[in-house]
Specification:
Plant_2OG-oxidoreductases, binds nickel (II) ion, binds N-oxalylglycine, 258 residues, oxidoreductase activity, oxidoreductase, alpha+beta, 22% strand
Amino acid sequence: MEAVCAEFFRLPAEEKAAFYSEDTDKPNRLFSSTTYELGDEKYWRDCLRLACGSPVGDTKNNWPDKPKKLREVVEKFVEPTRGVGMELLRLLCEGMGLRPDYFEGDLTGGDVIINVNHYPPCPAPGLTLGLPPHCDRNLITLLLQSTVPGLQVSYKGDWINVESVPNAFVVNFGHLLEIATNGVLKSIEHRAMTNAALARTSVATFIMPAADIPIGPAEELVGEGNPPRYRTVTFDEFMRVYKTVGARRESVEKAFKL
Ligand code: OGA
Ligand code: NI
């Protein structure tokens, strides 16, 4: 997966151009940098975004057909990777006293979205980030973070480097997991740094909810002396707010906290 994704970004620009789009409604596209509604800052990132059904089936026909092996490799990667995420969600349920299939169904019923993030060498790493501080919007993300360092997480007010472990996933909890567990599990704020020497390609696999389902604290985790800490909203409304206030931990928390 890592090899074929790195190979995609090495294709000549003409071959990638057909897939390039700035239309944020397009589920499959190549885009550059990131434009946030709030600031319009630019970041040092190219991104290939792929929407994958579960199972993949015909959805692979919407992905680039170059490199030749891309569709086959992504399909073989995404199905078991989703399986790992689902198994982790089952284990988290067990730890929290939720029924093991609590997250099965609508909360994980959307497409699996893959972000292949490509950070070219940056001539002035002090001037720009690869990706700004954010928490992912979904329940859980499995990240192949590359052996080139760059990922940092916010920890007790500092940014700390996440050490790269070859052939391992970094597992990120997203906003939805925090809301669904009524704050028992916390979303993790993270960002990507740039470096002057080496290109870095990471692969983030997001298990997404179905489009317009209600998102709120699990009833099982709310009760006497333990009131709901977040409003229940539809995922569409959540996304409208997420896009408006920005993806940072505190702004999203403020917008949904009761
Ligand atoms: C993301 C992400 C981090 C990285 O795609 O949401 O956080 O290391 N990527 O590229
Ligand atoms: Ni992220």
